Amino acid sequence: MSDAGAEHYPGPLHTPPVHEEPGVAGHPPHHPQLRHHFDDMDQQAEASTLGMWVFLVTEIMFFGGLFLAYLVYRSAYSTGFQEASNHLNVYWGAANTIVLIVSSLTMALAVRAAQTSAPPKTQVGWIVATMVLGAAFLGVKVVEYTDKFTHHLVPGANFQWTGEHPEAAEIFYSLYFCMTGLHALHMIIGLGIMTVIAIMAWRRQFDASYYTPVEVSGLYWHFVDIVWIFLFPLLYLIGFHYH
Amino acid sequence: METPTLTYLNDGHGLASWLLTKDHKRIAILYLVSITAFFAVGGFFALMVRLELLTPAGDLLSSETYNKMFTMHGVVMVFLFLVPSIPATLGNFFIPIMVGAKDLAFPRINLLSWYIYVLAGIFTLYSALSGGVDTGWTFYTPYSTAASNTHVMSAALGVFIAGFSSILTGLNFIVTIHRMRAHGMTWFRLPLFVWAHYATSLIMILGTPVIAITVLLVAAERALHLGIFDPALGGDPVLFQHLFWFYSHPAVYIMILPAMGVVSEIVQAFARKNIFGYSFIAFSSLAIAVIGFLVWGHHLFVSGQSVYAGLIFSFISFLVAIPSAIKVFNWTATIYKGAVSLDAPMLYAIGFIGLFTIGGMTGLFLAAIGLDIHVHDTYFVVAHFHYIMVGGAIMGYLGGLHYWWPKMTGRLYNEPWARVGAIVVFVGFNLTFFPQFIAGYLGMPRRYHAYPPEYQVFNVFSSAGASILAVGYIVPLIYLTYSLFKGRRSPADPWGARGLEWEIPSPPPTANFTVSPVVTHGTHQYAPSKEVGIV
Amino acid sequence: MFTNLPFFPQQASVQAGQVDAIYFFMVAVTAFFSLLIATLVVVFAVKYRRRHDDDIGVAIHGSLPLELLWTFVPLVIAMVMFVWGALVFFDLYRSPANAMEIYVVGKQWMWKVQHMEGQREINQLHVPIGRPVKLIMGSEDVLHSYYIPAFRVKADVVPGRYNTMWFTAKKPGEYHLFCAEYCGTKHSGMIGSVIAMEPPDFQAWLSGGRAEDSPVAAGAKLFQDLVCHTCHMGDTQGRGPVLTGVFGKPVQLQGGGTVIADEAYIRESIVNPQAKVVAGYQPIMPTFQGLVTEEQLLQLIAYVRSLSQPGAPVPAGTPKQ
């Protein structure tokens, strides 16, 4: 292999606006957000984005265990799963899907705003829009979960099923709550992250020379969105026929 | 008399400067201390088990207590000792230095991983002190979810939390190795220790999340009676086994690959010769990581999985042995025509090579599906994995600790005592675990509190060996600690080895390098003698 | 402690020899390579020891021919072991058609055995030598494993399904029976003996049991008591399928697909009747989960199977004598 291994070394990929500390004796000027163990901002940005991608791979494996359990039981209890899925409200699920897709759009626009050094108001606006949509998603989930609770569809001691395949239904709802619950937990964490990013954007910390936190938060948000894109058809649309 | 220089050890004093450090070297020392503490805890449980097994009758401990002892021995040793041991101590300390960087990519995440580890340890200790857990470290359902009345949830949560520590460590290593290499440090100039940790990190990030969700499901099922693994509610107990072993088999490669990386470094340094077959060893590490994900079903040969699945897993399990065999031959060839010095690190490395060969080959017995039927869940399996984990991984850990002790602490330990310690460990280890192969083929099942009298002689030898092994572990504890106070100061390169770590002071300064190194060739080039780079 | 010290288990089954053969082969290969590596390492470490403080080794980077050699030789040996192990496994796995079947139920912390002729045992298993025996095993609670070291056979006992294993005993004697899957407090107490006997002795032992204890008779009685016969009648007028001649044959299912009516299907149909409904019938059978024990399930299965045996087609609902 040639010396091309030193990928982090070539010059900057774009010309950032100058954001450097006035030179201090013995301390070369650099961007205020450069952590000292990195050589330059590019290396730092690339490390951060690679780190987030690696983390998202772990998240895929984390959800993957649940998807595997779903796969096993859906093939064992296909009729029962279909029957149980019919008690989920497809319209709420579809609405949530649209909400999340739009929130990914607003998130991408927030990243773009930071990337193009848009005014803080614009950056914060798109971030808050994303958060509002995320909160709407969680609100709908609260409505759905409450409905399940009142209809005795929460697995455990109070589970009641009047249909034909009670064991399959209970396993379906166990998976439903585990998968959507884990997803909702990730949404809540996402809202926390967005809050921090919004505050940082308000404080004018992001511009074309430094917007990595917005970018990696965007990656996380898109991932949470994509998980839902899989959850929705697998949980809500089994044997669904539009009437 | 030199004026004292600023090293990472004296750069900042007080508890806060350690507990809030971002320096990868200090974090490595934090891990070293806590891992040693948990090794002692796990060792205590082992001693209880071996004491009970001196006699066939269950006369020392009650059944419940004995079952808790072997369970907690396994949980502590696997999750709180073996998985983090080399990566979190030696890996954390040396990977940045070996790639020529000032620190890992994410220093604060590194510190966070240590706090998460400590939290996991607290959960596990809590479950031990509040009455213990008795499911076996494997938490098989439905016993763990429906039948056991011990502290399964806190133990399961302890494992869950420990998993995050492991994931963050792996993530940090991967990004560091990809993005923080110094100028001229190409992939094929990296030390094999780094390759080993890269492969290990791949397993950490891909496998650990699966056991995380699995133990979470066990806890949820126990708390909420969900029925995912409970056959009475339509669930499948064997599904748990698939999910559990999907991580736990690759986990054993997490435990051994770093030790193999250590052995590669030690053999080169103490034969003063670059490794034979560098790229073969590097690619073997990756091959072990990849193939290791495809063999988990060999733990389910007698569970009733399909014949075809069994055959596929058996076949791939035989394949995964080949890269390890390649490494053993390459290490042996490295010693050929070397300039060998049998200091303690080399004794540990040589011990590793022999014991790992035996341990690895006894794994083949278990991969042969027709033979596994007889030896599954017997002491044959117990002996096999202890040969790898204790004869292999722990000897690798001790070897690395000794090799890099002068660099980390700036002190030289007492070499004659270290050699004594290595020999005592080797003798004690073999006496403990070799009889277990025989007892296992004779049919003695594992996790047995009491056993028929004809197995006693093997158990007596095994317990005698365990007491010798315990002494073997206490001896280094004493002289290594002593060296911290009274050991002679170490020069930058006490062993005459070659590598970026030997070109900086012992102990290193906080920023590792005064100027970022420019690398011109790989490590362990002894002829003609030259440094790795300009520091 | 040192009297009568066994170092090796007895070969008490016909299969044991095969298992031991591959074992000895692998011991030989392991010993060979371990000694080879150990010797090489020690010899090299001594022969090439450092004589001066600044000695260095010869710079050898590698050798492709050697790498290929020690990749392919281990690979070939590994493949031999794989194939050999697989062949032994096929033999251990496929039970002969004429095997004598015995039911085993494991529960914390004992083994309950039911012979088809009526004998029941706790923690023991009497078998004749020279005749293949197939165990059909279920669990009442958690995972267990039925292990007979002298026969070299073992199979997990999994709640919610049946696992089977078979052997042919060849040497009369009493052999250890162990539970080999950790199952809680008295896991190490869940042990017993397998007693292999000459066929005449075994017959004599068998006839010590009473005929009405046979699982088939018990199953017939249960069939009445649980009023199965009101739906599963002797003719096609019933609300449920006819069970005569059904066992072991393919069954058409509702919604397409077929399944063989074996022990597992019969068991599932009793505890989870909606899972695989027979084509042409309504899914109205109630579940008996929790109303019958694992042993009773085995008795019902034995009864249903008896309805398919040649020479004994009796309308369902009539107890067999």
In short:
The complex is a heterotrimer of chains A (243), B (535) and C (321). Chain A is mainly α. Chain A is 67% helix and 0% strand.
- Looking at the chains present, what oligomeric state does this protein adopt? heterotrimer
Count of discrete domains of chain B: 1
Counted by DSSP, the helix tally of chain B is 16
Query: How is the largest sheet of chain C built, in terms of strand order?
Result: 3-2-1-5-8
Instruction: Give the amount of beta strand of chain B, in percent.
Output: under 5%
Q: What is the tally of beta strands of chain B?
A: 2
Q: Main β-sheet of chain C, in a few words?
A: 5 strands, mixed
Uncertain residue segments of chain B: none
Instruction: Let me know the CATH homologous superfamily of chain B.
Output: Cytochrome c oxidase-like, subunit I domain
Q: Strand order across the biggest sheet of chain B?
A: 1-2
> Number of helix segments of chain C?
6
Largest sheet of chain B: 2 strands, antiparallel
Terminal-residue CA separation of chain B: 24 Å
Work out the number of β strands of chain C.
12
Low-confidence stretches of chain C: 315-321
Q: Write the CATH architecture name of chain B.
A: Up-down Bundle
Strand/helix succession of chain B: HHHHHHHHHHHHHHHHEE
Helix content of chain B: 55-70%
Overall mean pLDDT score of chain C?
89
Instruction: Provide mean pLDDT of chain B, rounded.
Output: 94
Specify the helix fraction band of chain C: 25-40%
Can you describe this structure?
The complex is a heterotrimer of chains A (243), B (535) and C (321). By secondary structure, chain A is an all-alpha fold. Chain A has helices at 41-76, 78-85, 90-115, 120-150, 166-202, 212-236. The longest helix of chain A is centred in the last third of the chain and has 37 residues, at 166-202. Chain B contains 16 helices and two strands. Chain B is mostly helical and 535 residues long. Chain B has a single domain, classed as Cytochrome c oxidase-like, subunit I domain (Cytochrome C Oxidase, Chain A), CATH 1.20.210.10. Chain B has helices at residues 15-19, 24-52, 63-82, 85-99, 107-129, 143-147, 152-179, 192-224, 237-271, 278-291, 307-335, 344-367, 369-375, 379-409, 415-441, 456-486, and strands spanning 518-519, 533-534. Chain C has 321 residues and is α+β, with helices and mostly antiparallel strands. In chain C, helix 4 packs across helix 6. The relative contact order of chain C is 0.12. Chains in contact: A-B, A-C, B-C. Chains B and C meet through helix 3, helix 6, helix 9, helix 10 and helix 11 of B and helix 1, helix 2, strand 7 and strand 9 of C.
